[in-house]
């Protein structure tokens, strides 16, 4: 029986991101993926929100995605576009990039980190005990792991076998989506009918001045809202009939790359952890794709879980650190479920709903509602409940331009290796964290600019911040060290008797 510290079921964006996070921390991790090649990834998701780009920048890989995608204002609520170009982030936009490209880039990163892959296999069973999990594969082999993470989608076998309930709401609407070729030139754009919204667009496109510009020829992306909730496996004939019903012709569709169906089924795992089995991504939450939040939420699940699981595996932190994964990410997922349900309701074809939609659209044109909803949809306003205190506590650390004794650097550069940072912005040499020096970087730096958070505006500048590997602030200094030792112990384990000198960068002014 082959052994790994962690086995991940599913090699989509969530599983790949989690594997990379664990590998960065030196954890032996393997992905079990039913597809024989990452090239077989679909293109159901089409972009990254601002916070996800920040997450990738924290690992030094955002440019890989930015070089292939198209920058655009993608944040929106019920088809009302929400501009974030004035937000305090280096990425005040979203990125148009199909999921197959996102997966390819993530898989390349994971490969560089020596993540093990079991391709062409599925997890068919599991049995956990006090010491680990036995994972059964479709070819009859078994793997042994200390922990198993289900990143195997909305129909997650890991979730089902682990006995984790999946409460929520059944679908009320469904849509066919596909990528096909057409012998006739289609009517591109969005069309509304009594059955709902429909759209045709060319897969190959670019963004110019914030507008979509399609390239001639190529594959056509199709989205059709069905008149009734579909349940069977969709076929080319279903797609043809749907096109005829809406457009009067099927434009001679042929050679589908793939055909699928999505619904507004809305469910969330009752717990993200059952012993040594954890869930992330669609295995933990499913909802309508409106707003493009699914892939982004899954990648951020992985970012939250990865460093915590690594510390537990390496015996740096006690096992109860994993409880904070559910405590922090379950409320985030629940909010996504609620806002997608609201958006689906607002997009229904009905005169009264249309009046409500117009009212909401008018409200979102106002600055404060626009900033609040845009911060939510882009993921920039996430706050984990770490108690009362400074507005930064539990929120994302901004990517500040810092000045250090070794020269200027960006805050996110300090997170490339997924190591926590105590950033001292006050008098150099104020802190001594020798008992945590093998885990936490101590950096003396200066920053002269204003501190601002999306939807909150300016905040009081802290004298120091303790930044977790996922980029969230675990402690904020107010000129004293009150609460720092407790925060270090809570998030990065008890002090060690073996003291290694801290990595320090001394400030030389602003």
From TrEMBL:
Gene3D superfamilies, per the entry: 3.40.30.120, FAD/NAD(P)-binding domain
Keyword Ribosomal protein in annotation: no
Domain FAD-binding: 5-340
Molecular function per GO: FAD binding; oxidoreductase activity, acting on paired donors, with incorporation or reduction of molecular oxygen, NAD(P)H as one donor, and incorporation of one atom of oxygen
Cofactor: FAD
Organism superkingdom: Bacteria
Pfam families, per database record: FAD_binding_3, Rng_hyd_C
Keywords: FAD, Flavoprotein
Record's protein name: FAD-binding domain-containing protein
Biological source species: Marilutibacter alkalisoli
Highest classification ranks of the organism: Bacteria, Pseudomonadati, Pseudomonadota, Gammaproteobacteria, Lysobacterales
């Amino acid at each position: 029986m082959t052994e790994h510290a962690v086995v991940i079921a599913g090699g989509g964006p969530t599983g790949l991101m989690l594997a990379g996070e664990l590998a960065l921390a030196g954890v032996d991790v393997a992905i079990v993926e039913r597809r024989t090649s990452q090239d077989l990834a679909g293109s159901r998701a089409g972009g990254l929100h601002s916070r996800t780009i920040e997450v990738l920048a924290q690992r030094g890989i955002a440019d890989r995605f930015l070089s292939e995608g198209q920058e655009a204002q993608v944040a929106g609520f019920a088809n009302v576009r929400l501009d974030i170009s004035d937000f305090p982030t280096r990425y005040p936009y979203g990125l148009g990039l199909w999921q197959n490209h996102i997966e390819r880039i993530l898989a390349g990163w994971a490969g560089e980190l020596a993540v093990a892959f079991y391709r062409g296999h599925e997890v068919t069973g599991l049995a956990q005990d006090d010491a680990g999990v036995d994972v059964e594969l479709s070819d009859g082999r078994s793997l042994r792991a200390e922990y198993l993470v289900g990143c195997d989608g909305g129909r997650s076998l890991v979730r089902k076998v682990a006995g984790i309930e999946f409460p929520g709401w059944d679908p009320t609407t469904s849509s066919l989506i596909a990528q096909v070729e057409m012998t006739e030139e289609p009517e591109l754009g969005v069309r509304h009918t009594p059955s709902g919204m429909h759209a045709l667009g060319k897969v190959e496109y670019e963004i110019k001045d914030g507008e979509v510009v399609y390239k001639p020829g190529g594959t056509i992306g199709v989205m059709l809202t069905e008149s009734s909730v579909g349940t069977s496996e969709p076929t080319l004939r279903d797609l043809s009939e749907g096109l005829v019903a809406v457009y009067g012709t099927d434009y001679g569709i042929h050679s589908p790359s793939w055909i699928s169906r999505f619904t507004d089924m809305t469910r969330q795992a009752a717990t993200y952890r059952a012993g040594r089995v954890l869930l992330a991504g669609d295995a933990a939450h499913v909802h309508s794709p409106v707003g493009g939040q699914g892939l982004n939420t899954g990648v951020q699940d992985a970012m939250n879980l990865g460093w915590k699981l690594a510390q537990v595996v390496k015996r740096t932190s006690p096992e109860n650190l994993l409880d904070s994964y559910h405590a922090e990410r379950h409320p985030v997922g629940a909010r996504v479920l609620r806002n997608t349900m609201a958006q689906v309701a607002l997009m229904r074809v009905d005169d009264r709903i249309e009046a409500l939609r117009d009212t909401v659209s008018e409200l979102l044109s106002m600055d404060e509602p626009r900033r609040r909803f845009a911060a939510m949809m882009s993921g920039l306003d996430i706050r984990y409940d770490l108690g009362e205190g400074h507005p930064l506590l539990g929120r994302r650390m901004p990517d500040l331009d810092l000045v250090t004794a070794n020269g200027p650097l960006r805050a996110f550069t300090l997170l490339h290796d997924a190591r926590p940072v105590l950033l001292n912005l006050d008098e150099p040499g104020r802190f001594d964290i020798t008992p945590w020096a093998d885990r936490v970087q101590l950096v003396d730096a200066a920053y002269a600019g204003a501190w601002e958070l999306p939807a909150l505006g300016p905040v009081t500048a802290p004298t120091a911040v303790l930044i977790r590997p996922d980029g969230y602030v675990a402690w904020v200094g107010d000129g004293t060290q009150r609460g720092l030792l407790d925060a270090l112990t809570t998030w990065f384990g008890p002090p060690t008797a073996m003291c290694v000198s801290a990595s320090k960068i001394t400030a030389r002014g602003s």
